[in-house]
């Protein structure tokens, strides 16, 4: 019993460390890829091909003054970035990497746990913006909260089609239900809606209005610096890895694939969607905030409801009801 607990703890620590380190490395990978696609140099001064740029950034971040504005609410200001990164790392615990590698992937409330953590993550942004006592930060926090709550509505509804087809909230059951056919085929609209909502919830281009530099000078984390700002920064990349992993697990069969080991398939599929996140940032312009909200409520929400109703109809039809 003790050995089993120790092994589970070691697995959890290894998975969390890998996710955290990869998320930090993504900041360098993203800049290199953006440079390649936009026909310009990316980071290329520190080490071969700029590969030590991350180390230089981390040294700068660690030694920068950890300043808290005198007009800020110090307690809330300090815990906001902690909530931001911890909720996303904890949410990753329900992701099954292989049948035997996952922290809490066997739990029967896996998908519900992810939705709960996504809901708590909103408070990090809200706390950061409010406690900064800055008009731009507060406006960014209000934008982020309204946007996240709006897009989480149809993010959850888009996943209910997968739950209906798999008959379970358990992530392992959902992956095993895709042995014959990946859910991206029968749940194509659910897949598209989940991708859109995933980009919006992580506040990535073209849904980065809460921290738009031109409008709000970085929005809710305008007063942050040093390690606290770094936690918000890395948290955004942890969010990208989390959403990419969930797309792999929920719509593309998780670790299932021919010839190669399961973990290789999981990593390859996840990397593909991480690259798509970066490509979207490079290719799409930023719409106005009112257009983002109208798109969510007037197009995505009705489409997610129609997708859920049609899926329910065919599931009942298959059961002979």
Walk me through what this model shows.
The structure is a single chain. The protein has about 325 residues and is mainly α. Helix content is about 70%, strand content about 0%. Helix 1 packs across helix 9. The longest helix is centred in the first third of the chain and has 36 residues, at about 1-35.
Defining traits:
single chain; 321 residues; mainly alpha; 69% helix; 0% strand; globular
Q: Summarize model confidence as the mean pLDDT.
A: 86
Q: What general form does the structure show? A: globular
Q: Can you tell me the residue ranges where pLDDT is under 50 for at least 5 consecutive residues? A: none
What are the secondary-structure elements, in order, as H or E? HHHHHHHHHHH
- Helicity range: 55-70%
Give a brief description.
The chain has 321 residues and is mainly α.
Give the SSE map.
Blueprint: H1 2-37, H2 53-63, H3 74-91, H4 110-131, H5 135-166, H6 171-176, H7 188-201, H8 213-216, H9 226-251, H10 262-283, H11 289-318
Helix pairs in contact: 1-9, 1-10, 3-4, 3-9, 4-5, 5-7, 5-11, 7-9, 9-10
């Amino acid at each position: 019993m003790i050995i089993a607990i120790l092994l589970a703890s070691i697995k959890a620590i290894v998975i969390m460390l890998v996710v955290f380190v990869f998320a930090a490395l993504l900041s360098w990978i993203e800049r290199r890829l953006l440079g390649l696609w936009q026909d310009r140099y990316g980071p290329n001064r520190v080490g071969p091909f700029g590969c030590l740029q991350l180390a230089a950034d981390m040294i700068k971040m660690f030694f920068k003054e950890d300043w808290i504005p005198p007009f800020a609410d110090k307690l809330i200001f300090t815990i906001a970035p902690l909530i931001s990164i911890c909720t996303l790392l904890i949410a990753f615990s329900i992701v099954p990497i292989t049948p035997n590698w996952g922290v809490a992937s066997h739990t029967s409330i896996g998908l519900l746990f992810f939705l709960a953590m996504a809901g708590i993550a909103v408070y990090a942004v809200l706390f950061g913006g409010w406690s900064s006592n800055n008009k731009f930060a507060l406006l960014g926090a209000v934008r982020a909260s309204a946007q996240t709550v709006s897009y989480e509505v149809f993010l959850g509804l888009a996943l209910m089609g997968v739950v209906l087809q798999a008959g379970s909230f358990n992530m392992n059951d959902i992956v095993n239900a895709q042995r014959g056919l990946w859910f991206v085929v029968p749940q194509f609209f659910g897949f598209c809606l989940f991708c859109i909502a995933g980009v919006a919830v992580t506040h990535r281009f073209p849904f980065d209005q809460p921290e738009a530099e031109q409008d709000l000078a970085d929005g809710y984390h305008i007063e942050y610096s040093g390690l606290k700002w770094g936690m918000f920064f890395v948290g955004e990349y942890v969010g990208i890895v989390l959403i990419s992993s969930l797309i792999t697990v929920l719509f593309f069969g998780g670790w299932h694939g021919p010839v190669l080991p399961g973990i290789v398939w999981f990593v390859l599929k996840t990397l593909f969607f991480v690259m798509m996140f970066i490509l979207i940032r490079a290719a799409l312009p930023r719409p106005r905030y009112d257009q983002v909200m109208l798109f969510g409520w007037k197009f995505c929400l009705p489409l997610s409801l129609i997708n859920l109703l049609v899926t329910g109809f065919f599931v009942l039809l298959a059961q002979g009801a």
